[in-house]
Design brief:
It is built from 9 helices and 22 strands. By secondary structure, the chain is α+β, with helices and mostly antiparallel strands. The protein binds N-oxalylglycine and zinc ion.
Length: 370
């Protein structure tokens, strides 16, 4: 077995690890990350990059007691890097992240994972298992939620604080005489994501079913990533237009007027899909150049058509005590029309943003027994 070896190059230090892999550490990066520059309590960087020349060079490099010791030329400074820190931070690779749970696309035959409310409330392992399913699939149901307004949001708050919107910190989905939103009527709600008119649409959505006695009102879900990837494979030009052409989304009532232009699909750095904004009832009047419209409408219809196909869409009837949780920037949701004179239907909803969700995943991993 070979051991750890370093080589002093012109611009960078080359490190060869016992497994034969090599990492290249530019000197400016090493100097910027000298462990002595971190605040001892906050761990934030106190170093001012502009306090050194743009091209620092080592005068001497040595290995001592598991530390790589770099004495810098032209300044009175010595940096001591623990080898395990250098092994975890290899330029060109991202350090392992417990919040980075790969997404697994699903279709209309998906069996939605079920979790138990009491377990999630009392046990971090059950919370982590629910969150892992939500991260992977973007859809999970929690059963056994107490029959009280606030029981669903208490589960959401196990993940993180709630995202407030113009509809409140939580919202009541009931048919109202004075609706400001189609959700607050008894109408059919075609598959959509909520609040695509926001600069950052809410991350995870939680809908706790308190009553579902009316005829109709079944719930529908589809994986926006599965639909987008199917479209990419079948019609790359349509996919490209949905990724690149911003369209208007707007909500306005007496208190708010919240509007953005954004594409329907936003790719991520790895070539996957970061988020989907799809909501035909909040989309405004398309205002791209007229010569683009025929192609854009064709692409938009190709996406929309898939949201009506059984191969992508699953339906179910929420029962009182069920709470459905889903990634609102990935999973499309909708409901069938219901008949309010046949019984009461009441969902209590709230949101938690993706950042808070990921933070909880990292904290749970930190405390997980080895
Ligand atoms: C919503 C919504 C679904 C339902 O409130 O945004 O989509 O089942 N509701 O009523
Ligand atoms: Zn909705």
């Amino acid at each position: 077995m070979s051991s750890f070896v370093f080589t002093v190059g012109a611009d960078a230090l080359a490190l060869r690890w016992p497994d034969g892999s090599v990492s290249t550490c530019p000197y400016v990066w090493l100097r910027d990350n000298c462990p002595s520059v971190l605040h001892p309590q906050t761990r934030e960087r106190m170093f001012d990059l502009l306090s050194i020349p743009p091209d620092p060079r080592p005068r001497h490099v040595a290995l001592a007691d598991g530390l790589l010791v770099v004495t810098w030329a032209g300044e009175e400074h010595v940096s001591r890097f623990p080898l395990d820190w250098l092994a975890r931070h290899r330029p060109g690779t991202r350090p392992a992240d417990p919040a980075d749970i790969p997404r697994v696309p699903w279709k209309g035959d998906f069996r939605i994972p079920r979790h138990d409310a009491a377990a999630i409330l009392s046990d971090d392992g059950a919370l982590a298992a629910w969150m892992a399913d939500l991260a992977r699939s973007g859809l999970a149901i929690v059963g056994g939620v107490a029959d009280e307004v606030g029981a669903g949001s208490a589960l959401a708050e196990r993940i993180g604080f709630l995202r407030r919107t113009n509809f409140g910190i939580t919202f009541e989905v009931v048919s109202r005489p004075d609706p400001n939103n189609l959700a607050y009527t008894a109408e059919h709600l075609p598959l959509h994501t909520d609040l695509p008119n926001q600069e950052i649409p809410p991350g995870f959505q939680f809908l706790h079913c308190l009553a579902n006695a009316a005829e109709g009102g079944e719930s529908m879900f589809a994986d926006g990533i599965a639909i987008a990837e199917d479209l990419r494979a079948a019609d790359p030009e349509a996919f490209r237009l949905l990724c690149t052409v911003p369209i208007p989304f707007r909500f306005h009532d007496a208190e708010a007027d919240i509007a953005v232009h954004r594409p329907v699909l936003t790719p991520d750095d790895a070539g996957g899909i970061r988020e989907i904004r799809y909501n035909a009832h909040i989309a405004g009047t398309f205002d791209m150049p007229a010569q683009l419209m025929a192609d854009y409408y064709r692409a938009y219809r190709a996406f929309m058509t898939r949201t009506r196909q059984d191969r992508f869409v699953l339906s179910l009837r929420l029962a009182p005590g069920d709470m459905v949780a889903f990634d609102n920037r990935r999973t499309l949701h909708g409901r069938g029309r219901f008949h309010p004179n046949t019984g009461f239907r009441h969902l209590h909803g709230c949101y938690v943003d993706r950042g808070e969700f990921e933070s909880r995943l990292r904290l749970l991993a930190r405390h997980r027994p080895a």
